[in-house]
Amino acid sequence: MDDEGPTPEQQSALYGALVAFQASVPTVSKDATNPHLRNKYATLESVIETVRPHLAAAGLGFAQPPVLADGMAGCDTVLFHRDGGRLTYRLMMPVGQARGVSDAQAVGIVLSYARRYSLLGILGLAVGDEDTDGGPPAGARPRVGATVERRCAQGVLRQARRSARQGWPHLRGGGWVVRAPRTATP
User: Which among 46, 96, 88 has a CA at the least distance from the CA of 72?
Assistant: First the structure.
């Protein structure tokens, strides 16, 4: 990567490709159930499996290097276009202690969660409410737009509040770090 960053033309190409991707990708299905909370969710594997072919068709790809710092774990999600444009989004969360989970497992859990939600966020996608076997219901359009970020944030806040009520002191009073994407203006 160069220090100057992408050109406005490269960013414009990326945004155009992102719009094409969002128009083509089906809704991500919830494919697993949390045994403790009994809620359904989309696994990281399901998210990647759903989006990868549509990203490739639009000339887009992504990388998610892990980031660890000061008891926090997360990732930088980098969305890139074949012509050089890119967006970067960092999501960091506290690594907690849980009974029966090693430190390495706790980091792995947080990394998986951060990768899943930061990928959905940077792509502007939401997870569907019903299982559609990997495809949208007949006549349905993909869910995209500004409500995606609100839904992701609400889900993260619900989980943080639930964890705080369960006595996880590292989540009391916040602790979530979300940084806005770093981009050049088109």
Answer: 96
Residue 183 has pLDDT above 80, yes or no: no
- With a CB cutoff of 8 Å and minimum separation 6, the contacts of 39 are 33
Number of domains in the chain: 1
Greatest Cα pair distance, the chain, in angstroms, is 51
3 part of a folded domain: no
What would you report as the CA-atom Rg of the chain, rounded to the nearest whole angstrom?
17
Structure token pair of residue 91: 């999501």
In a domain? residue 48:
yes
pTM over 0.70: no
User: Cα dist. 74→111, 169, 176 in Å?
Assistant: 5, 19, 10
Determine, yes or no, domain membership for 21.
yes
Here the contacts of 81-84 (C-beta below 8 Å, separation 24 or greater) are: 81/10, 81/13, 81/14, 81/17, 83/9, 83/10, 83/13, 83/14, 83/59, 84/6, 84/7, 84/10, 84/13
**Alpha helix ranges (H) inside the chain:** 8-24, 44-57, 103-123, 147-165
Where in the sequence is the domain holding 170, given as residue range(s)? 8-181
State the angle between helix axes of 44-57 and 103-123 in degrees (0 to 180), rounded to the nearest 10. 40
Q: Does residue 51 come out as left (phi exceeding 0), alpha (psi in the -120 to 50 range) or beta?
A: alpha
pLDDT tens for each residue of 97-119: 778 889 999 999 999 999 999 99
Sequence letter at residue 77: T
- Domain contains 145: yes
